[in-house]
Design a protein that fits this description.
This protein is an all-alpha fold. Helix content is about 25%, strand content about 0%. It has helices at about 15-25, 45-50. The radius of gyration is 14 Å and the shape is globular. Keywords: Methyltransferase, Transferase. One of its GO terms (molecular function) is methyltransferase activity.
């Protein structure tokens, strides 16, 4: 059985982070956790997509 994974597509790595995040379905209001962010290549673009979050109050 052949699997088509995005990481197998060499063009995937040359895409802009914001384009990749939109392709995986990230949208305004979502929560994004960048574990092992390294240089943070996806951190700022993800923040721009999800937007400002309101403070949580209990």
């Amino acid at each position: 059985m052949k699997h088509d994974h995005a990481w197998q597509n060499k063009n995937f790595f040359w895409m802009e982070p914001i384009e990749i995040l939109r392709k995986i379905g990230l949208k305004k209001g979502d929560v994004f956790l960048d574990i092992g962010c390294g240089t943070g290549r996806f951190t700022i673009p993800a923040a721009q997509i999800v937007g400002k979050q309101e403070k949580c109050t209990q």
